[in-house]
Amino acid sequence: MNKIAIISGVSAGIGLSTAKLFTENGITVVGMGTREKVENAPEKNFFYIRGDVSRPTDREKLITFAKENFGRIDILVNVAGVAPLVRADLLDMTEESYDRVMDINTKAMLFLTQAAAKEMIKNEGTDKGAIVNISSLSAYTSSVSRGEYCISKAGVSMITKLFADRLSEYGIPVNEVRPGIIETDMTSKVKEKYDTLIENGLLPIKRWGTPEDVAKAVLALINGSLPYITGQSLDVDGGFHIRRL
Predict the structure, then answer these.
(1) In a domain, 83, yes or no
(2) Is 204 a domain residue?
(3) Which residues are catalytic?
């Protein structure tokens, strides 16, 4: 059976790479992003809905499209996320910036997962679905110039654990991928900084990660290769998480 996946934040970066890999493996993708169109989108089995997942009506539109056109939802990959518009010291962080980042990175993920999970539970058979949340090394790493981002990603980790616990009775695994320093639009503004850090030994694997690196981890978590895992955080970070002397 051709599986149906919903991917948020699908218009570029990790979301788009995941969509491409999924369609190459026979999975139909229904994606949402804020861009007018998706450059270099998959040519087949890819459906794009422009919208903002922080809006309840747009989340509903995404779920409804998948249900009405395909009758089911098998996979959810929560990718949509933003960095602060301004990197401000923690002592200067504004409530407006905090609310914006939390609404998109955490609240939207929570309620899109809730909506998709309710549909997955209705699926017939034992293979009801799988969920992967894209978090960040910032879930456990302090960056005092973007505290709201770190807090939002730490929230994603707890969302993962909560839904892994709640959905375990239905056999729906919920896991998290924590990307490290990945070449995306979000990190392009700080490229020189991370080039220097990587060159000076920040990462055991001395290179930037790619969106494709993350997409491959997501595929492994949803294709049945790891059937005895749920509530897990998978670090795709070139070894950043290793504490070294």
Answers:
(1) yes
(2) no
(3) 149
